[in-house]
Amino acid sequence: MIDSHALGQALALLFSSLAPWMVVIPGLIIGLVFAAVPGLQISTAMAVFLPATLFMDFLQAMLFLTAIFTAGSFGGSVSAILMNIPGTSSCVATTFDGYPMARRGEHNEALGLALGASCFGVAMGYLILFVLVEPLSTAVLKLGPSEMFVVVLWGLTLIATLRGRYMARGILAGVFGLLIATIGMGASSAIRGTMGSPYLLDGIPWVPGLIGLFAASELFNLVEKPYLVESEEARRLSFRRIFKGFAMTFRYPGVLLRGGLIGTLIGAVPGVGSSVANLVSYAETRRRAPDAETFGTGNPKGVVAAESANSSAEGGSIGTLLALGLPGGGGTAVMMAAFMMHNITGGPRFIREQTDIVYAIIIGNFVQVILLVGVGLVFIHFLSAIVKVPLRFLVPSVLVLSTLGAYALEGSIVGPLTVWVFGGFGWLLRRFDYPVAGTAVGLILGKMAEGELLRTWQVSGGDPGYLLDRPITLLFFGLLLVSLFWEPLKARLFSGRRGGAASHDAAP
Amino acid sequence: MGNVLKRLDWGHVVFVVCIAALSAWYLGDAIAASPRVENLILIAPAAALALGLCALIIGRTVYDAATADASASPRAERTPLTWSRMRPVAFIVLFGLYVAALEPMGFDVASWLFIAAALVLTGERRIWVIVGYAVVFGSLAVWLFGLMMPYPMPTLVVPVQ
Q1: How close does chain A come to B59, measured CA to CA in Å?
Q2: pLDDT tens, position by position, for chain B (161 residues)?
Q3: A 195-224 residues with CB < 8 A to B
Q4: Which domain holds residue A103?
Q5: Structural domain boundaries of chain B?
Q6: What is the ipTM for the molecules in this complex?
């Protein structure tokens, strides 16, 4: 199951020089700062700093981006606990019990619990990935172009269907992303949609496109809000009590393990990830708890359940990225951009051929967890202050950094122009309730989808009957249909029973 | 009927029509480039699906406006166009001007002006804060990126390699 030779090489890669570690602490700090600012997502931080990975080797780039990812899993809980504002969408359930704990004067303990559960969650997610990555790649290598094409569509569909009653908007966002991705010279050398511009022959520069969709569009939204944290009261922090909370985390091993497992499994499903995992873990822990009635009033188990799940989702989503080459959400979409910037294609062949690098990324993340404990404790004071920074300073500053980064990527004004166009488009998507991640994933996977579909057509000779001989394609297609129609069907089937249950299941 | 038109989310309708128009134009352009299956294998079904979804969404938006509570006031009256709502649009325009000014003005001067204008737009009124922050942050960012970039970045004042 574990390739010991590759493991030895991974350890040599990581520990023969300090170079891979030079970027980890800056990455952790960036992740903590961005996640602690309500409204800024981890994917925003990763997109803004993506151009910096141009100057790193691939392993350094991955450690830098996963450090941002890892730290973000804890950083978002700071504002969730102190101000009842989830720093990221994956910290919604943390507010349910974290904020009541803070109002009781137990904010130090709650922050310690969040830090402990986040560290445990990240470690557990990567441990599962470490054990399963090798067999997973063997299984995935058996997939042909038709299976890969349906997997791409399935990933897009899952992201699209998260919108519930706005499913059509989600699918449209994804399909439009697919279309944009095919602009430029196609497989048959036909030039599509370039309007005569030589800049577009190679297609839309999609890394600046991602910076626009994730970072710029969100920043445009934030200018509507002058202050996010006006009403914040000064709160004194105590290291001793934060440590006490950190240690308290491990009094709930069952909650931690369940949260870690739920997070890893849900995180591995494209389009779902930590935003859903924290809610599922919280609901499941409350359902099983003998003291369920105290959830929502400051039960430490609520914080542990939410934070262990949203953090372990990282390992699951990176597993999907490595095994299928499929980004499950914003963070892994940016990571996939880093793969391509280093001329590396994710997927089973990458795992088989560069197992040492894969192991090095995973082991690097175990070390990041230990570093996060130290960095997190030191930076809690700073983090609680950064949420007071007025957005009028934050927004233009981050936009300038994004623009300069896009210029660094493309070496021409096309980079900043792409950020502007996609930033404006992303703002419209958000305004009318379309998922930005759908367009982003379509943009990333469009070329791959076209290539896999073309290969399927060539292999089958255009005979649709070929698909009937591909049971895995049919299985994936079935899963695609289930993910498309299950939610509306379930809503219709259970609509009669919902009334009473809804109030009970509602978040406190 | 008049109420339906007033209640309709026109911004959303225009947005969807634009997506439909772009999808249709792109499909036409791809067919003109090459009508072979290799060229259209993904574009044709994806564009057709996009057009279908646009029609569905517009239909749904009109239906929602028609079936909305008749006593509800029209949309335009419910959400007046305030400066706060317009600010993101103004900001997007400002950002576009910044991008357009980067090469002619230099990255440093354009960044100073953009940060200063953004601060004014979002409510900062202290001149020394506006000028000081714009110059210090803009210069530092341009200088740092200038150090890292392997190709020239046009600047007017801040020296970069």
Answers
A1: 12
A2: 667 777 888 899 999 999 999 999 999 999 999 999 889 999 999 999 999 999 999 999 998 888 876 555 544 444 555 666 788 999 999 999 999 999 999 999 999 999 999 999 988 889 999 999 999 999 999 998 887 777 788 888 877 76
A3: 216, 220-221, 223-224
A4: 4-151+204-430
A5: 2-78, 83-148
A6: 0.92
